[in-house]
């Protein structure tokens, strides 16, 4: 009986020692995993530690989340802004501007680039061009640029003859003419739509009077350019992007002139100094 009691104690002691040994080994393996993660948080691997046929321990190290950082671009000096902006007008074809493309360029990338020559807020960049204040407006959705508005102050490279020669026949042309404004002079708006190319242009300026009718002369008139994703919007949708007041008052070209959009293209793609005679009588 005593021999059985001693044997029982020996077996129990052996089991306790084995348990302590295995537990310690697991703890050491787990601590080594922690140390590896601290030394190399981006390294991911899975491995097994086997102490006996009865126990298998698996450790997984997950990579740390890395937030991208942007190195600031060199600031364009004020004396170099004019030449720099002119180069952006030649950088790529519309609706791309300065290698920013609606529907493709990420918001963070666009803002990173624009910050090199202007002051940014949430949707606009402000800078001086030819000693005049300029604002470029953008819209964003789901982290992408969805539209770019280039004001007339920087669009001298996009006169009507240039747009027609480079992009072909517009899908639609709309017009409005005021025979007399508060200043006593006539004024016009002319909107040219290229939905297949992803842009439209709004020309505006003072009308010229000929035989008591208003002429629309487009030489040296620079447009408000609106750049969107090509082939995404119908003409009706693109027309709805206009300023609400313009959207309500613009009429088809034929309603205020004696020519249609095809005749307009034939004339103004060839002649830069041609004027468009309207039906609007001066009071």
Short description:
The chain is an alpha+beta fold. It is 31% helix and 30% strand. The strands form 3 sheets. The protein has a 9-stranded antiparallel sheet.
How would you explain this protein's 3D organization?
- The protein has 283 residues and is an alpha+beta fold.
- 31% of the residues lie in helices and 30% in strands.
- It is built from 8 helices and 14 strands.
- The chain has helices at 2-39, 81-89, 107-114, 160-167, 235-240, 244-249, 253-256, 261-268; strands spanning 45-52, 55-61, 119-120, 124-129, 132-141, 144-150, 172-178, 187-194, 199-206, 208-210, 213-217, 224-227, 251-252, 275-281.
- A 9-stranded antiparallel β-sheet has the order 3-4-5-6-12-9-8-7-13.
- The chain is globular, with a radius of gyration of 35 Å.
- Residues 1-12 and 14-62 have low confidence and may be disordered.
Taking all Cα atoms into account, the compactness measure Rg is: 35 Å
- Poorly predicted runs: 1-12, 14-62
Q: What series of H and E elements makes up the topology?
A: HEEHHEEEEHEEEEEEHHEHHE
Q: How confident is the prediction overall: mean pLDDT?
A: 81
The largest sheet has its strands arranged as 3-4-5-6-12-9-8-7-13
What is the count of β-strands? Answer: 14
- Distance N terminus to C terminus? 131 Å
Q: In percent, how much strand structure appears in the residues?
A: 25-35%
Q: Please count the helical segments.
A: 8
Anisotropy-based shape: globular
Query: Structural class given helices, strands, pairing?
Result: alpha+beta
**Can you summarize the main beta sheet?**
9 strands, antiparallel
Oligomer: single chain
What proportion of the residues is helical, as a percent range?
Answer: 25-40%
């Amino acid at each position: 009986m005593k021999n059985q009691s001693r044997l029982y104690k020996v077996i129990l002691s052996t089991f306790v020692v084995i348990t302590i040994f295995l537990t310690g080994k697991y703890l050491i393996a787990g601590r080594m995993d922690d140390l590896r993660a601290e030394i190399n948080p981006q390294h991911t691997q899975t491995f097994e530690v086997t102490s006996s046929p009865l126990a298998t321990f698996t450790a997984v190290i997950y990579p740390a989340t890395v937030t991208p950082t942007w190195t600031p671009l060199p600031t364009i000096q004020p004396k170099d802004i004019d030449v720099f902006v002119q180069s952006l007008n030649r950088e790529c074809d519309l609706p791309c501007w300065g290698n920013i493309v609606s529907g493709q360029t990420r918001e963070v990338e666009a803002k990173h680039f624009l910050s090199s020559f202007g002051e940014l807020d949430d949707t606009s960049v402000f800078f001086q061009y030819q000693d005049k204040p300029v604002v470029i407006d953008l819209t964003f959705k789901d982290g992408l640029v969805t539209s770019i508005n280039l004001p007339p102050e920087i669009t001298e490279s996009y006169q009507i003859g240039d747009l027609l020669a480079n992009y072909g026949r517009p899908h639609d042309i709309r017009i409005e003419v005021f025979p007399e404004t508060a200043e006593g002079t006539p004024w016009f708006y002319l909107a040219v739509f290229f939905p297949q190319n992803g842009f439209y242009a709004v020309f505006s300026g003072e009308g010229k009077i000929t035989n008591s009718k208003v002429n629309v002369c487009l030489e040296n008139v620079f447009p408000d350019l609106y750049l969107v994703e090509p082939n995404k919007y119908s003409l009706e949708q693109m027309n709805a992007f206009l300023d609400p007041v313009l959207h309500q008052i613009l009429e088809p070209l034929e309603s205020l002139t004696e020519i249609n959009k095809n005749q307009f293209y034939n004339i103004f793609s060839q002649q830069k100094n041609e004027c468009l005679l309207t039906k609007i009588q001066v009071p």
